[in-house]
From TrEMBL:
Chief localization: membrane
Taxonomic lineage: Bacteria, Bacillati, Actinomycetota, Actinomycetes, Micrococcales
Domain of life, source organism: Bacteria
Localization annotation: Cell membrane
Protein's name according to its UniProt entry: ABC transporter permease
Ranges annotated as spanning the membrane: 9-30, 102-126, 138-162, 182-203, 245-267, 287-313
Keywords: Cell membrane, Membrane, Transmembrane, Transmembrane helix, Transport
Amino acid sequence: MALNILRRLLAGVVLLFVVATVVFVALQLVPGDPARTILTGTGATPTEEAVQALRDELGLNLPLWQQYAAFLGQLATGSLGESLQNGQPVLDLVAQRLPRTLILILTSTVVSVLLGVLIGATAARFSAGRGAWWDRVVLAATSVGVAVPSFVAAVLLVYAFGVQLQWLPSGGFVPFERNPAGFFQSLILPTAALAVGFTGTVARMTRSSVLGVGNQDWVRTGRAVGLRERTVFLRHVLRNSLSPVLTVTGLQMGAMLGGTVIIERVFNYPGLSGLLIDAVTQRDYPIVQGVVLVIAALFVVLNIVVDIAYGFLDPRGRN
């Protein structure tokens, strides 16, 4: 298990290096001059002398290999550089926004997994007999949930609960220390928008896995020796059905790391995605590089955590 984690860590370091290189090269190919964008933002038309002077100050006139070497040198010291727009350390800007995005992703994950496992397991238990209608309802509802894009669900939720009923705020974010009740209210709609498809995916995977495990020999043996049906289901069926659910959960969380951009825009949620979009618009290369690297690092860490959790659920995965 430890050797497997070490291999994943080494592979993650290589992956981050590749991502850093690709992002650096890609940003150099983006049309537009960061120095000109900065000076134009002041409201005046910059002269060529002013643009060149700012390029010299920012190091943009250095040869490409020197800029790349400086970029890697910053990463080696744990720095993500400074914003071209305001000179603030990129690490500080990311640290301000990242917790909000993580809160949104973790909340959506917890809600989706709990509801998805409950719905999927219940549907599997009643997939035959008089309760089969519940299984059919679940299949239809989860199909719709998976098919509806999260941004469509977000718009519908805002219109229904934010505009028409006015039960919940349609956007914004309230810090917990300022107003705990407002904090939770501001999370409900974006969490629900992200959880719609996520819950459907987990529910369908849970149902399929429970039905497959329920036909195994050890399950029939447990029933034959007189174990209670509840004990058989919880201890022998459901627990052994969670490995593929865990895999799907890890993939969905990884997708959400890069997929909250539209959701955060719809709800005016001040997370990491807004920082990234603004940086791309302003040609603020250090921020773009920093945000992408942080997302890639989180994805690597998430995969390692999933591997560890998988080992606890399935002893065969510990080697």
